[in-house]
Amino acid sequence: MQTDLPGHRHEWLDDDAGPVVRPYTLTGGRARPSTDGLDLVAYVLAKPDPDLAAFPELHPEHRLLVELAGRGTPVVELAADLDLAIGVVRVLLGDLLSRGLVAVHQPPRATYLPDNDILKAVVDGLRAL
Predict the structure, then answer these.
(1) 36-77, pLDDT tens digit by residue?
(2) H or E element that contains 114
(3) In which band, very low, low, confident or very high, does the pLDDT at 109 lie, cut at 50, 70 and 90?
(4) 1: pLDDT confidence band, cut at 50, 70 and 90?
(5) Residue 73 parent element (H or E)
(6) What is the DSSP string of 18-35?
(7) What is the sign of the dihedral through the CA atoms of 68, 73, 78 and 82?
(8) 88 C-beta neighbours (distance < 10 Å), count
(9) How confident is the model at residue 44, as a pLDDT?
(10) SS3 of residue 37 by DSSP
């Protein structure tokens, strides 16, 4: 019988695995961000010199998001950098937005869509290659 004594290691963990935390633990069980419309390609930019010490309740992942967003990064890249599901990152970003630690810059909506005839011509041209 195995026990969970200090210093005892589980067989299913290795040094490369790092800490194992379920996504719902990071989000407090929330599946949707507190703000709507976080597009995958929206740029997240951390506020200059954010005072993270004023928010002791933030998870390490929140703090890492603020650090990564210091240079302006799309939402999808933040998810890839943290190796977290996009839904989890959206919830965490919503937390940071509500605290004023980051700003999100949405891409402009497309006001012009190409004509179907142009799209068909492009597809026909690609097929001819």
Answers:
(1) 768 888 899 999 888 888 888 888 888 999 999 988 899 999
(2) none
(3) confident
(4) very low
(5) strand 73-74
(6) -----HHHHTTT--S-SS
(7) negative
(8) 21
(9) 93
(10) coil
35 burial via Cβ count (<10 Å: 0-12, 13-18, 19+): middle
Angle between helices 86-98 and 75-82 (to 10 degrees): 110
Orientation angle between helical segments 86-98 and 60-68, nearest 10 degrees: 80
Scan for tokens 């989890």, then name that residue: 88
Give residue for tokens 């939402």: 75
Q: Which helix (H) or strand (E) holds 101?
A: none
Q: Distance (Å, rounded) from C-alpha 57 to C-alpha 59?
A: 6
Q: Which tokens go with 19? A: 């800490």
Helix (H, G, I), strand (E, B) or coil at 55: coil
Over the stretch 2-39, which tens digit does the pLDDT of each residue have?
Answer: 445 455 555 555 566 555 666 666 666 666 666 776 88
How far does CA 26 lie from the centroid of its chain? 12
Report strand pairing: 73-74 vs 102-105.
unpaired
The confidence score (pLDDT) of residue 29 equals: 64
Three-class DSSP category at 58: coil
